Automatic annotation (TrEMBL):
It holds the Pfam family YidD. This is Putative membrane protein insertion efficiency factor. Its main location: membrane. The keyword Magnesium does not apply. InterPro entries: Membr_insert_effic_factor_YidD. The lineage of its organism: Bacteria, Bacillati, Bacillota, Bacilli, Lactobacillales. It is found in: Cell membrane. It comes from Dolosigranulum pigrum.
Amino acid sequence: MKRLLIGLVKGYQHYISPLTPPSCRYHPTCSHYMVQAIEKHGAIKGTTMGLARIMRCHPFTDGGFDTVPDYFTVKRNLDDLDRQTYERVEAPDEIEQLLTVYHEKLNIRSEAVTLKQAAAELVSLEACPLDKISTEQLAELVSEEVGAISDWELYRVVHDKRSKAYFSQVAPGPLDKVWEPGTVGLLINEERGVYESNSVELLVDVIRQYGVTERDIQERSDRLLEYLYFLRETDVW
């Protein structure tokens, strides 16, 4: 039962979560909390804790850290109330654990590339100047503060032999408001990641192609940690 429930959550992380902008106000995210709670407390208690976490994750909460405690509770972990920022001094153990599991799946590059460069290695891109769409349209694509328009890059994927597979499973989404349905696109912000795509497979492949460098591994960089989180989220049992 534990394996089945965890598999369902992993399926959500892989297929559903990438279609929606980040919205969880806690660390770890609610889906990760659910998996960890089930692993630690079993199917019934773990699921109950996970559902309680989802109910208290709403726009009116302050958010912050809320890790799975060693005891059963449907309330926030009291030990985390004062932890509002990520403390990298506590990250090394987590990085080492994730490296042990996912080292063989790392895409190690000789040099770091941008997300745009990673995407261009997979498909041909046509830039869509953002001045051709209204600020209101961009705001509809982005669930948080838009910031500087120059930070965002919008691309239409050219339909050819390289991209053919991505066009076979196009999901309805916000990009349909910019182009006609069936068009595959990418909305990229180099600081925030591949923010939006109506092809889950392309989104995942771009981030996988993005990879890490040997220097990232040696320095245990933020890029490495984020990439390991990505591998964990897309590792469906």
